[in-house]
Design a protein that fits this description.
Elements lengths: L6 H12 L2 H5 L2 E9 L2 E4 L1 H15 L2 E10 L2 E9 L7 E10 L2 E7 L1
Parallel strand pairs: 1-6
Antiparallel strand pairs: 1-2, 3-4, 4-5, 5-6
Length: 108
């Protein structure tokens, strides 16, 4: 059975792929936490800055290949391409959604 992710996860990937930093950041709760490349980014404004820096530096595009509901969290597998060494890469995105906002995102 295919998992349908919450709309906010689809909105996040669409905004990231289009380079819409503010729209991507708006998907997160005010006190959300993102863990990426061994660093934590907490709070919507800090997350917005991380998205802006990542977008400028790497111009990432994510093609989601699978998404599963795992214990209340959503695990998305994706092929990420961009201007970074080793592109494209397979990455795992684990989202926790509270209400209609992302409260936690871990990228590995």
């Amino acid at each position: 059975m295919k998992t349908t992710p919450p709309q906010v996860i689809s909105d996040y990937f669409a905004a990231v792929n289009d380079g819409r930093t503010d729209d991507a950041a708006a998907c997160f709760a005010a006190d959300a936490l993102v863990h990426d490349e061994s660093h934590d980014h907490q709070g919507r404004e800090v997350i917005r800055a991380w998205i802006a820096e990542t977008t400028l530096k790497y111009q990432p595009k994510v093609e989601v290949t699978d998404i599963k509901n795992v214990g209340g969290a959503f695990a998305a597998s994706g092929t990420v391409s961009g201007t970074f060494p080793g592109s494209p890469l397979q990455l795992e995105y684990t989202f926790t959604v509270s209400g209609e906002e992302i409260s936690h995102l871990s990228i590995q």
